[in-house]
Amino acid sequence: MSQTKILVADDEPNIVISLEYLLKREGYTVLVARDGEEALAVIRREQPDLVLLDVMMPKKTGFEVCQEVRADEALQAIKILMLTAKGRDTDVAKGTALGADAYMTKPFSTRELVQKVAELLERTA
Fold first, then answer.
1. For 41-52, how does the pLDDT look when each residue is reduced to its tens digit (9 = 90+)?
2. Cβ contacts of residue 108 below 8 Å, gap of 6+?
3. Residue ranges of the alpha helices (H) in 47-104?
4. What's the mean pLDDT in 19-44?
5. What pLDDT score does 112 carry?
6. Which of 78, 84, 120 is CA-nearest to residue 99?
7. How large is the greatest C-alpha to C-alpha distance in the chain, in angstroms?
8. How far apart are CA 74 and CA 117, in angstroms?
9. Closest CA to 82 of 67, 110, 63
10. Which letter, b or e, does each residue of 52-75 get, where b requires 16 or more Cβ atoms within 10 Å of its Cβ?
11. Which phi and psi (to 5°) does residue 102 adopt?
12. pLDDT for res 37
């Protein structure tokens, strides 16, 4: 069985560090991107199983990254979990409309996140 790869795309180092630790502990291979452009480059190169995508990032927003991934035939299978400090319904609707598979508002409980990740990956397994 190949390792499940998860990309953590967030510009807040403390969030990246805690998510990376958490996901590695769960047995996932973790990739990291600090801005939207880097996230897209890593997605195209590594084709992770799941992307934890922060909405507010430099260079490209999570919404833009999501849109580009969804527009690319080769990347259709990748699951996207949007992470955002903005829990407004309009943002959730926008993320969902652009093709995000799920949405979590910061701050989130780590247990909830791990559960959501497992749920999303079960659907691809």
1. 999 999 999 999
2. 83
3. 62-71, 89-97
4. 97
5. 93
6. 78
7. 39
8. 22
9. 63
10. bbbbbbeebbbbbbbbbbeeeeeb
11. -160, 170
12. 98
pLDDT tens-digit series, residues 55-110: 999 999 999 999 999 999 999 999 999 998 876 788 888 888 999 999 998 888 88
In angstroms, the CA 5 to CA 48 distance is 5
Tell me the C-alpha distance between 87 and 78, whole Å.
23
- 56: helix, strand or coil: coil
| DSSP-H helix ranges across 1-125 | 13-25, 36-46, 62-71, 89-97, 110-124
Is 0.85 surpassed by the pTM of this model?
Answer: yes
Residue 125 pLDDT more than 90?
no
CA–CA gap between residue 111 and residue 123 (Å, rounded): 19
Distance CA 118, CA 63 (A): 23
Q: What pLDDT sits at residue 95?
A: 87
Q: CA 49 from chain center: how many Å?
A: 10
Chain position carrying tokens 């801005």: 35
